[in-house]
Amino acid sequence: MIVSGTKELSGSRETVWSVINEPSEMAKLMPGVESFEIIDERHWSAKVKVPLGLGGLKMKMNFEKLEERPLEFASMRAKGQGVGALMDMTTAFTLSESGEGTSMAWEADVKIAGPVGAMGQRVLQPIVNQQVTQVLAALEKRVAAASSGSAE
Amino acid sequence: MTTVTEQPTTTLKRGYVGQSIPRREDKRLVQGLGTFFDDVRRHGMGYVHFVRSPYAHGKIISIDVSKALELDGVYGTLTGDEVAIHTDPFFEMSVEPGGNIKDYALAVGRVRHMGEPVAAVCAATRELARDAADLIEVEYDSLPVLVDAEESLKDEVVLHDEAGSNVVWSGVFDWGDVDQALAEADHVVKIDRLHFHRFSSTPLECAGALVEYDKGTGEWTLTCNHQMPGIGAIWMAPALRTGIDKLRFVTHDIGGGFGNKICLHPQYVVLCLMARKLGRPVQWTEWRTDQHTANAHGNERTFLDVEVAVKADGTMTGFKVKALDDCGAFPRYEPLGCIIWAQVTPGLYGWRNIRVDFTQVCTNKSPASPNRGYSRMQHLWLTERIIDIVATELGLDPVEVRKKNYVKAEQMPYETPNGCFYDSGDYAAALDIALDLIDYGSIEERRKEAASRGKLLGFGIGSTLDSGTNNFGQSTLLNPDLQFSGNNEAASVKLDIFGEVVVTLGTVPQGQGHETTAAQVVADILGCPPEQVNVRRGHDTWFNSHAGFSGTYASQFAFTGLGAVKGAAELVREDMVQLAAAVLQAPVEAIELADGFARIKDGPEEAALPFMALGAIVNANNAFLPPDFNPTLNHRYVCRPYFGMVDTEKKTGQLTLTYATQIHAAVVEIDPETGEVEIIDYAAVDDCGIRINPQIVEGQVHGATAHAIGAALSEEFVYDEDGTLLTANFYDYHVPHAMDMPPLKTGAMESPSPVAPLGAKGMGEGGGGGIHCLGAAIQNALAAAGNAIVYDSCNPPHRVWSMLQDPEATRANVEVVSK
Amino acid sequence: MGAPARSRAISLEVNGEQIELEVAARRLLVHVIRDDLGLTGTHVGCDTGNCGACTIHLDGEPVKSCMMLAVQADGAKIGTIEGLAGDGELTPLQQAFNTHHALQCGYCTPGMLMSATALLERNPHPTEDEVRYALQGNICRCTGYVNIVEAVVAAGGGSA
Amino acid sequence: MLLREVEYARPATVDEAISLLATYDGARPLAGGQTIVNVMKARAAAPDVLVDLADLDELRGIGFSADGLLEIGAMVTYAQLQGSSEVEVARPILAEVASTIADVQVRNRGTIGGNVCVSDPTNHLPPLLTTLGATFTIRGESGERTVSADEFFIGVYMTAVGEGELLTKIGVPPSSGAGDGFAGLTIGKHGTYIVNAAATISGEGARIALGCVGATPVRATTMEERLAGSDFTEESIRAAADGLGASLDPPSDVHGSADFRRHLAEVSAVRAVSQAAERRKGA
Question: Which pTM does this prediction carry?
């Protein structure tokens, strides 16, 4: 499943880059992160509990930075394993200047395997969309805060 | 020149046989007093849970069980590495390349389908075992996934390195001269592609076993629900490097099998190893999701490049086809499916020129396993599709074209182009009964009435055969080196000290009512009421009479199962008659057995011995009998049907023995806006020769029909491109419930089998009649809305809707070349 | 107010007998019935609550015992298949299942009987459609439902 | 089939329940359990604490508010809806739709509150309650609030009921001469919906909501506008539905492609509206 979109952010490319390219910053944006660990420059891991109305879906996620061109492009791979589910996601962000702010084009290729993947297929896309919406909303806030912070 | 094999038969006095006696199994089952494997407990037993692969294809990088072992209450674990050390790969039936495949009880180094067992853990409770399984860390590297048989054939990705190819088996079957038939035909109808989908009978009780190991003797006891322990032991004993008698299979009641409980040997071997490793009884109960993802799917088959030779008058003289069978990740019972279909090569039709180019491949899906109508159903679907597509394309009447092409009653016994003998039957007469039941005469009127309500009405026929009793010699048509031929089954009958008749069976019933029908047969032979006959429940390979391929499969109980019962009962009868003659001092000819007595025919009333007296004399009071007279009242009989040898060059021979006929007819209404298919009339006519118990026969017809209706309209194992099974539970894999099933009308004929011991033919599997007649009925209904061709055996609303949206896409599949 | 706990002492009336036991909160009622109480007539046929083989009576109404935690049943009256025929005397419905060949492997039968018994208590003379509606939550893979429906209708005095 | 460890509490009052939900991390209410127990069996989503609402009789009532609103407690089962004389009088469509949810056993346990709080896109009641103009009363430690369906359904498995809160009742306006309809395509009879549509026609016009085509019920607003002042003939209803499918972005799955769902959305909407119009005439 491929989900993609473009988000206009009211912050400079430097600000946006600093948020999305800093694992610990990114961790704050993701819903349900319970713990976070940086292994090395290119690898980090997190324990997440995807919050759903029925209770959390617990997963252990491993992230790997794949490619980066500062201020312009970054891609990473996230592999998550929970009980009966396995997630493999490759995401890429492309930043460009857009007036005062930054335009961020993003794309994610998400694969969910395992029995839970089979059970949840009809709700998977909406759930992924929900998560993405939450991340983007948090990102918007964070960038806004960082921008106003730097302006002070 | 082959001739029909005459089986030794005696005329059976029909008394209880032929009656719908209520089943004796029922009394315990309706009170919840049946004993299924999961009902059995042992002191100190542990529960096993499997860790299963979430990947359809991947390398196993590492397995770490340490955290699981730290958990309180965990008894131990087992991984593929240990399995590879302590067992040998299972015996493969194929020649190369499939024969080189190494199939172990747990994944060794690589996973090849989603849900494949990778490790096992045993703990004090079911819940703990699953907790522990969650703690086992397995690291995988994913590999490219094959979910399409045609992709598999390219061998760009190979599942089994040791085989070097995804092809399990391939070969050409060529009977008659199809090229000449096509050359001489007035019309050649070409069909590019037909697809028979994946589904299975999904017995309501999942698989499982309780396994105990006796360290002193090296023996394992499996309290289980294997439906064919004979073959189970043949697979397991060599893998476990032990003797076949070290494996004792015990079954009590089994919650349905339908062939799906034949390939349980991988899981059972894990349980055997675990029981031995831990020195305690271990128990495993499969869950539904596991059964769907990783146990037993029916064979999926794609038919390519079909060409049918048709004469101007509608006579079909032959066809050729490329069949591509998808058996999933491991062959297991395969490649037997590459030949079993040949038992019904021409279907019900008289065409003599048939060429089938058959290839079977592995894919990253659940392994296949025999499934009610195993392998024949797929082929019969092809023949029925051919008939209806030819009829549609050439404007022939589906009833008339069938009657014209059916093998005729006067041709029976009929030798098929590949040397099988259709023993008896009158297909056209059976069709007439079915047509009457659905009021065929009113179809056009009903079609108009439905149209006035915006519905598309369609009518269809499915004509099939259920071939009963396997000749395992057909496996040598796949692999001449196999040392298999023929078949046999055992039973024992004895008269006990208090005059009870005790019967044990070699068969392993899962709902077919063997306790009842065997009692009917024995009662008639011994002259007592069936209540006096105790047919022991279940099966125990140590104590029941048991033969090499003992089990319940291949629609063969009526022949070999009851044949063995009959043989053993007749031996006991002979003893009883001789004993009575000796005691009553009358000639043997003067003795009759009736009403629980041995007596002198037309003799005085007191010249009679109750069975109890006979039993007591032999078992407790026999000193007065002369030394050279030793009636035992205790006999075992092995029924060995005679098949003769198959011809591996010509690929001909008697592959089976009896052919029951099923003619199904259905009327459906399609809602063109949603693609929903509603069955508004359904009739199933069965001719299985002598019906031992008509009510049980009818029950089998109902059940086989329900399976076929489910398969035709909703049951489908669908995989996505990553090899994830999308229909892994009863939400998405929809089996018909009471509101989905239409009322069924049934009809019966009795064309006694001239070859079977009781004139009765195996009939439990049916032939998938519903799949054929519903496909035909849907095509018939769609004729008024673009004339789409039904190309798939499963037609849920979305598929019917797309056929309505783009009938041309389906029509592009078919071409008629007329001369 | 009781704080959340991983196990709980519960009391059940099972087939007329009062039972007290301590159960883990996570355990399904069906497992407690089968494994702890030894009433193995209640079966498990799926893991998603579709098949109805585990149907029991909870305070007189049919429910699926695999879709309930045992702790939820605290204080309830439970009826299982073993309680239908007192002293081995089959109920008319059980008898009708035998007469009409309404079972083959017998695995779905207990759940089917519990659903049908509840129907007949509410509606002693159901029509065929009413029977099919009442049994929709019970999957049978052997019979095609034909004889089951017939047996229930017959037990209600009708003919299907 | 085998659940993770979980803690269980069975409060005697609504306040206790709310307090438990607010106090314990990962606590979730347990109503009929016909979804959540299943999900826990798969170990998919896993609450840490279950707060069983079984003893909260306050949530089991069906009655009328002072201003005539039909009030249904969150713990009212589908079977109760089927048998309720209040529902029969005030809004019979609720009983009619409830009678097609799953099967007898599930209807004996499953609740209206559970159905909406799960907010599964294939559930029956979210689109129905959306067209009926239902209100949802949510209570938390800081008090009670009442929201509309549009505010209530937030996403898949997500509703306006926040942590430490409980849905207590659902208010449904009585028919008052309105006609209600419900249609769609299921997997087998009374099975899971592939697409469904609910419609209500009253003096104020038509309200139409679609299920299974998005995370939450989707209002067919264009169709509603086109039907303003309509005579509700079959032609006019079909004309109003034209293009509805194209406006949607439904998911694809094994039971239907996005295109099939778009098509079914139109068909279901037409059928639901026709049924509603017919019933309004008959009322």
Answer: 0.95
